[in-house]
Amino acid sequence: MGITKKAVGYIRVSTEEQAREGISLDAQAERIRALAVAKDWELVEIIEDKGFSGKNLERPGIQELIGSCCGRKADVAVVYKVDRLTRKQKDLWHLLEDVFDKNGVGLVSVTEPFDTTTATGKAFLGMLGVFAQLERDMISERTTEALGEKRRQREWVGRIPAGFSVNEKHLKEDPEVLGKLQKAKRLRREGRSIRNISGALDIPKSTLHRLLSVNLKTLKSRYLNNLA
């Protein structure tokens, strides 16, 4: 009998991907477990990154996977799809050459047939990396176009500034908050303390500090031009 290989699984999903594609963490884990049983591998653990995109390797789960491979805790790393690891070709090659190959760890995808121990398999994996990055770039492009269209329709996108609110997707002045902001600044110029102003205007001190740092002239010139 041969030596049983030790496998470590890695699963990832972002909220957007889960809603769009339905590749839940549970579904990925189930497929990885089934493959391990079919291959007669010992599945040591399944590491997950929940709610993280594949745009970089700054994820706790992927760093744990890298640590497991560098510590030679597994013979093979298993993923549902290669793009679960990363959507950037540069990061994929880093993982393949500096993490998996360097530490004698094979890479297996449940849904994509390749063998990273052969030149052909590496080339095929490289092609998958190209398409994964292409998909990421297209998503980014579509997002940029969608935000641009919202701005053309004068819909507000981004954080709502102090003194404003969003009504029917458009930025509107909030007279009550702007009034308090102006009054707070006037009282502060008169020498009133933060505690005194906070009590007089019924504004929490932490909120008051933030409001007093706002330059009204700059705020209005920047945001009032965006009003419908």
Describe the structure.
- By secondary structure, this protein is an alpha/beta fold.
- The protein has 2 domains: 6-147, Resolvase, N-terminal catalytic domain (Rossmann fold, 3-Layer(aba) Sandwich), CATH 3.40.50.1390; 164-226, Arc Repressor Mutant, subunit A (Orthogonal Bundle), CATH 1.10.10.
- It is built from 9 helices and 6 strands, in the order E-H-H-E-H-E-H-E-H-E-E-H-H-H-H.
- Strand 5 (164-167) and strand 6 form a beta hairpin.
- The longest helix is centred in the middle third of the chain and has 34 residues, at 119-152.
- The termini are far apart.
Secondary structure elements and their pairing?
Elements: E1 6-13, H1 15-21, H2 25-39, E2 42-50, H3 60-70, E3 76-79, H4 89-100, E4 106-109, H5 119-152, E5 164-167, E6 170-173, H6 175-189, H7 194-201, H8 205-212, H9 216-223
Mean pLDDT across every amino acid position: 77
From the coordinates shown, what is the CATH architecture of the largest domain?
3-Layer(aba) Sandwich
Q: Radius of gyration over alpha carbons?
A: 26 Å
User: Within the largest sheet, what's the order of strands?
Assistant: 2-1-3-4
Please write the CATH class name of the largest domain: Alpha Beta
Assign an overall shape. elongated
- H/E element string? EHHEHEHEHEEHHHH
- Sheet with the most strands? 4 strands, parallel
Summary, kept brief:
It contains nine helices and six strands, in the order βααβαβαβαββαααα.
